[in-house]
Design brief:
Layout (H helix, E strand, L loop, with lengths): L38 E6 L4 E11 L3 E6 L1 H10 L1 E4 L4 E7 L5 H6 L11 H7 L4 E5 L5 E16 L2 E11 L5 E5 L5 E4 L2 H17 L5 E8 L3 E11 L4 E8 L8 E10 L5 E9 L43 E8 L10 E5 L5 E6 L5 E6 L2 E8 L6 E7 L4 E3 L2 E2 L23 H15 L11 H6 L5 E6 L2 E6 L3 E3 L3 E11 L1 E9 L8 E7 L9 E7 L2 E8 L7 E8 L3 E11 L4 E5 L2 E18 L5 E8 L5 E2 L8 E2 L3 E8 L4 E17 L5 H9 L5 H47 L4 H48 L2 E4 L1
Parallel strand pairs: 1-15, 13-30, 16-22, 16-23, 28-36
Antiparallel strand pairs: 1-2, 2-12, 3-11, 4-12, 5-11, 6-7, 6-10, 7-8, 8-9, 13-14, 14-27, 15-25, 15-26, 16-19, 17-18, 17-20, 20-21, 24-25, 28-29, 29-32, 30-31, 33-35, 34-35, 34-41, 35-40, 36-39, 37-40, 38-39
Helix pairs in contact: 8-9
Length: 788
């Protein structure tokens, strides 16, 4: 992407000097003169945007002209604020709005795009009158019919050549082979002028991408004019130095630097610079580009025909192809380049990547498109393309390598108290001492750590809503296209040097770390840090943002003096508790896991080791386990001290409660016997369970008797069915009448039995229901909580 960096009113009226009463003492420009507003304040955020303030004087109804790039202008249009601070008013803001190059080329009579080849150029001239002078000096005049590429064989080598076909005024067709000694002149004045306009547009596309904004003011006398806006900037970066003290009782020193890049194309001269550790929401919107709506194409009405006619359905237009090869400045192909195609409404319609040969191809509907090419390490390339139906639009492109930002120092650097640096004071003292006491050796220069302890930060930290701001105490000057390191933090902190071990790192060696507490009143932004011990580099690492009072472990090196080994042991314990509530018996046991850390200290001094023990879901530390010094979302942190040349152990025991549930009414004698053998219930629980089982057997006995009576009734029904079938077969003889009487008496006896059985079943059901209610009452009333 084209670097649209920072919204400093870049290239502000380069032809006129800055006139401000505050700094120059000169009078403000008179009405009608161009005024340039200097940058007075810059606020940089962590989301890649910057807030800029300009302040200057105008006189009368003056105009302030500001120049931006197109990319900067988008952000400026979203956020521009202009105020006349002395009673005047802002009458308007204007800027030049240029149509896209593709649309301007489309307005020409020549159907050419920005990357037209020679063959495409001649094709666009078909029908034009030309004068062609051949290599022999012969001049041909006529109208261009066509241009063709033919292959000729010379010395057994195929050579492609372009040939023009001209139709003379006499009607003859002349074929002229183009070559370096053949000249062609356009004989039509209007067409030659059109070619000039085409070349002007192509030349304009190479000029610097600038938009000129004019802020019109109205008022009398000299007035203060204020302008502010946001724009894209490089993200400022933070880096720290932690200096460990060499003297006992001294506190470590934290020094923080911010790396700031000025890539806006204009110097920052004596600006108030603030760095904000926060990322307000921001976005890019193409407000500066003219927006065209798509309109339907309605064909002209055809003339009425006398004969009957039919009407065809709409026929979709043929697609065109966009294809090309992407190379670097050396000619090597670039694979994996991302190509994005946008329509005229800036909507993304296609994305492709080049293959291993640096080539790409995609089908598009005929029309004008914007093509954007991006690849890491190369500048973003944008270009318009015109796609014609059933044709290939070549898009071969060479990508330019991206630029590199240099780094310089900033004027407002941190200075030691007293006005002179430690080096200046040392050499001044040494010179005076040599003159006064030639026989005495000069004292040694102060140690760097002693000098750093006396320094102070060049920035003042303060809360800024939900954000935190580092505001430099002195004004800063950073030249355009340069970078600077700005000191923002210089404070004592609380830090303890420890070793840190975590099994997940896969090494027995711990890390050297600082258990650092942000004892300052500053919010420390995230970034890299370096550790200096005994005035020597000891390691470096990364840190997240730290609020005041927050404690954090910061590792910076491998501890070669210690090793840590770990062993695990897990076992399931017996049932320790029985709980019976509402017919459910719960056996409560636990699973215990023990992890033993063995630490060996081979150093000659004692070491404080912090072990990060994994924090597992559902597991808790046992009562006999050591207490952690700190708990994170994923780890317990245990601290232990290991004497020199000694071995120490740390044992961490955890347990997880386990529960097994049983429904009391489903238990039987065999299960109770099993519980007794496993010692998972005691005599009290056994007695209560047996009462429930006994009552359950009472209910079961009644249910069994009911089933027996129901079976008897069913047998009687079956026998009665048999008797009734026999009675239907009797014919009325004497013997059959006797048999009929017998069957009648049998049916009568069976009906009496059925009545008796039904009465017994009713009684048994009452007894069963009573027994069932008693069982439910016993189960509901049974509540036990017994520790075994």
């Amino acid at each position: 992407m084209r670097t649209v960096l920072v919204c400093l009113l870049s290239f502000l009226l380069l032809s006129n000097p800055l006139l401000t009463a505050a700094q120059s003492g000169q009078s403000a420009p008179s009405a009608g003169e161009a005024t340039k507003l200097p940058v007075r304040r810059v606020v940089l955020y962590k989301n890649g945007v910057g807030f800029f303030e300009h302040l200057g004087r105008v006189r009368g109804s003056a105009d302030v002209t500001i120049e931006f790039t197109s990319g900067q202008l988008n952000d400026v249009l979203k956020s521009l604020t202009t105020l006349d601070l002395s009673g005047g008013r802002i009458t308007g803001v204007n800027y030049n709005s240029d149509a896209p190059l593709s649309r301007r080329l489309g307005a020409l009579r020549l159907p050419l795009d920005q990357q037209a080849s020679l063959a495409q150029f001649y094709t666009a001239l078909r029908g034009a009158r030309l004068e062609v002078r051949s290599r022999t000096g012969t001049v041909f005049a006529g109208r261009l019919l066509n241009i063709e590429t033919r292959t000729r064989i010379k010395n057994e080598v195929e050579i492609p050549t372009d040939e023009l076909s001209l139709v003379t005024d006499a009607g003859e067709v002349r074929i002229v082979e183009l070559g370096p000694d053949v000249t062609v002149r356009v004989a039509e004045r209007d067409l030659a002028s059109e070619i000039g306009r085409y070349l002007d547009l192509i030349s304009f596309a190479r000029e610097q991408d600038l938009r000129r904004m004019s802020i019109s003011t109205a008022g009398s006398g000299e007035r203060q004019l204020y302008v502010s806006y946001i724009s894209e900037v490089p993200i400022w970066k933070t880096t720290y130095r932690v200096v460990l003290p060499s003297k006992a009782g001294a506190k470590p020193l934290l020094q923080g630097w911010a790396i700031v890049d000025n890539t806006v194309g204009e110097d920052w001269n004596d600006v108030e610079l603030s760095l904000v550790a926060g990322a307000p929401q921001s976005f890019i919107q193409q407000l500066s580009q003219p927006y065209y709506s798509r309109r339907p194409v309605v064909p002209l009405p055809e003339a009425a025909m006398l004969t009957p006619q039919t009407h065809q359905a709409t026929l979709a237009r043929g697609t065109g192809e966009l294809a090309g090869t992407l190379t670097d400045p050396t000619g090597a192909v670039i694979p994996g380049v991302t190509i994005r195609v946008f329509d005229q409404g800036a909507g993304l319609i296609a994305v492709r990547q080049t293959d291993e040969d640096g080539e790409f191809s995609l089908d598009l509907q005929p029309g004008q498109y914007r093509v954007r090419i991006e690849s890491p390490g190369f500048q973003v390339y944008e270009r318009n393309a015109i796609i014609a139906a059933d044709s290939v639009t070549e898009f071969d492109t060479t990508l330019e390598v991206g630029t590199v930002t240099s780094t310089v120092s900033v004027e407002s650097e941190a200075r030691p108290i007293g006005g002179r640096s430690a080096r200046d004071r040392y050499f001044a003292f040494r010179s005076d001492s040599l003159n006064a006491m030639p026989a005495s050796p000069p004292p040694p220069p102060p140690r760097p750590s002693e000098v750093m302890a006396k320094m102070e930060a060049s920035a003042r930290g303060q809360e800024l809503g939900d954000l935190f701001e580092y505001k430099l105490k002195e004004q800063v000057t950073i030249r355009k296209n340069q970078s600077a390191m700005v000191p923002i933090v210089h404070t004592e902190i609380t830090a303890e040097k420890v070793s840190l071990w975590n099994e997940s790192k896969g090494t027995p060696r711990p890390l050297r770390a600082l258990w650092l507490t942000n004892s300052s009143n500053l919010t420390l932004d995230g970034g890299s840090f370096s550790v200096l011990e005994d005035e020597t580099f000891a390691g470096e690492g990364l840190t997240d943002a730290l609020k005041p009072g927050e404690k954090r472990l910061l590792s910076y090196a491998i501890d070669l003096g210690m090793t840590v080994d770990t062993k695990r042991d897990s076992q399931r314990q017996r049932v320790t508790r029985v709980r019976i509530v509402r017919g459910v018996m719960t056996h409560i046991s636990e699973e215990r896991a023990t992890r033993t850390y063995t630490i060996r200290n081979e150093d000659t001094s004692a070491r404080s080791l912090v072990i990060e023990h994994p924090l597992q879901v559902e597991w808790k530390l046992a009562a006999d386990a050591p207490k952690p010094d700190e708990t994170t979302p994923d780890y317990y942190r245990f601290r232990t001290t290991v004497e020199p040349k000694k071995t120490a152990t740390l044992t961490v025991t955890e347990f997880r409660p386990l529960e097994t549930r049983y429904t009391i009414t489903d238990l039987n004698d065999d299960q109770i016997q099993f519980f007794l053998r496993a010692k998972s219930i005691n005599a009290q629980v056994e007695a209560e369970l047996r009462k429930v089982i006994a009552q359950r057997w009472v209910v079961a006995g009644h249910e069994e008797e009911i089933r027996n009576r129901q079976a008897q009734i069913q047998n009687i029904f079956n026998d009665q069915q048999r008797v009734r079938e026999n009675m239907k077969a009797l014919k009325g003889s004497a013997e059959e009448k006797q048999l009929l009487q017998r069957y009648t008496r049998q049916l009568d006896q069976q009906e009496n039995q059925l009545d008796a059985l039904r009465a017994e079943i009713a009684q048994l059901q009452q007894k069963r229901d009573a027994a069932q209610a008693e069982l439910a009452r016993m189960v509901e009333a049974l509540t036990l909580d017994v520790t075994l």
